[in-house]
Specification:
The chain has helices at 6-13, 17-39, 42-58, 69-90, 106-109, 118-125, 128-139, 144-151, 155-178. It is mainly α.
Length: 179
């Protein structure tokens, strides 16, 4: 994915709504997909995506045109998603790894991506910490350093989470292949 040019970032930082709307349209689908894969609930993912961009706008003065805005936005989205899930868990509405989770129909939202597969089923079952790192690495194309910044963890921990996550996925996919 290409990056947004510095001029748009500077304009957004100064409060230019057109520049902000450009940033929103550029990243909205990716943020929604990321949140949907974590929450497994389209309405929650939509709400979290909106909350993410409200936070991006309200903290627009923190935009650094010299850095990748994608990393900053995904950090906000990750924190917003997990704040939401913690709040929901505290209210005892659900747990983060509920047994009866249903896989959302991703095709209904983005039919060209055809995301419902054995990989989606396997992702649902792996360790949530590994899942976050895998989604950021493979789905969003972030580098290890960027993932470490987003998830606020050492780069070696990111590498370990991705490696262990791949192993868990591989084992689960072997099981699905036997069916």
């Amino acid at each position: 994915m290409q990056e947004i040019n510095k001029d748009i970032l500077i304009r957004a930082q100064k409060g230019d709504l057109n520049a902000f709307e450009y940033i929103l349209s550029f990243y909205e689908k990716a943020i929604f997909n990321y949140c949907l894969r974590i929450t497994k609930n389209p309405q929650e993912a939509k709400d979290i995506t909106q909350e993410t961009f409200i936070k991006v706008y309200s903290h627009r003065k923190s935009i650094d045109p010299e850095k990748k805005i994608k990393t900053w936005i995904f950090t906000i989205a990750t924190n917003t998603t997990y704040d939401f899930l913690r709040s929901k868990k505290r209210k005892n509405e659900t747990s983060l790894d509920e047994e009866n989770e249903t896989i959302p129909n991703f095709e209904a939202y983005y039919p060209e991506e055809g995301l419902v597969s054995d990989v989606e089923k396997a992702l649902k079952k792996i360790n949530p910490e590994y899942k976050k790192a895998l989604l950021l690495f493979y789905q969003q194309g972030f580098k290890y350093e960027e993932i470490a910044e987003i998830l606020l963890m050492p780069i070696n921990t990111v590498k370990t989470h991705i490696s262990r996550g791949k192993e868990e996925l591989k084992e689960l996919l072997k099981e699905y292949g036997k069916n």
